[in-house]
Prior knowledge:
Oligomer: single chain
Number of strands: 0
Largest sheet: none
Order of helices and strands: HHHHHHHHHH
Helix content: over 70%
Amino acid sequence: xxxSADSDRRSRVLAVGLxxxxxxxxxxxxxxASLWDFDPDRLASRETKLWRDYYDQRYPKxxxxxxxxxxxxxxxSPLDSFRMALAAAHAARLFQTTQSRDEANxxxxxxxxxxxxxxxxxxxxxxxxxxxxxxLDWWQARRDKAPPQxxxxxxxxxxxxxxxxxxxxxxxxGVMRAQAMAYRDERGRxxxxxxxxxxxxxxxxxxxxxxxxxxxx
Length: 217
């Protein structure tokens, strides 16, 4: 018996609806995201790409690399990874054009969204508003050419707040990360491929130190 046109149409609509449902389920279903289980070398490679995206003002690529970091490095869901990447890229873009700390505060709401989502990757809640404020503090201190030892301690304070772990290794890791930033800032537009490799090596060492610090919780 031939299938009617209406029946065939309903079958196609149901099939499309099922595919949409499965897609939404895939991107939205919670994952077991974890900020603890990172690979220092892979994270350093990813962050180096993020820095290059930012300084070259390649914002679509910055968003994409932020998405990959959340999704692949920490295991957040596709939806949360998308939202985190959007918030972080938006905050970076807002901050990049500012000339003062008052103007830089425009980036705070996006940073608060980012840290609120990041909270899903740790075992205990933290003050995401304070984390966002600390993040912006060291962004501005770096722009104001503060010594890396100074804003490195703010980086460490942000990390300690997020993880709920604070020890000398966490502080050392924060300062090492800041020193990698200072290395890049000293060279500015004269950065070469060899310089970027050096940045990546320094970041890998910093994240290795962070890993050691977190293991002491």
